[in-house]
Design brief:
Elements (H helix, E strand, L loop, with lengths): L2 H17 L1 H4 L3 H8 L14 H25 L4
Helix pairs in contact: 1-4, 3-4
């Protein structure tokens, strides 16, 4: 399966979770914190400055949150 298609499917599933926030207690921000780090790939044996890792995490989490909010606005979970 194509990686982009996989991410799109994940966004649809995450949108369903956010739609049921009253039961799941998960909003777009919470899901971006949980799933965002999975989008960041560090090569084996590569060391990274901890400050840069925090900056990358913040950028990736913001992107994930924006993508999920876009998905929610487009009505893709329906």
């Amino acid at each position: 399966m194509n990686v982009s298609l996989t991410h799109l499917c994940c966004l649809c599933l995450q949108a369903l979770v956010v739609e049921n926030e009253s039961q799941t207690r998960m909003n777009a921000n919470n899901l971006s914190i949980v799933f965002g780090p999975n989008l960041y790939e560090q090569k084996v044996g590569e060391s990274i400055d901890p400050i840069m890792a925090i900056k990358y995490s913040k950028i990736i989490n913001e992107f994930t949150k924006s993508a999920l909010e876009w998905r929610m606005q487009s009505g893709a979970s329906k």
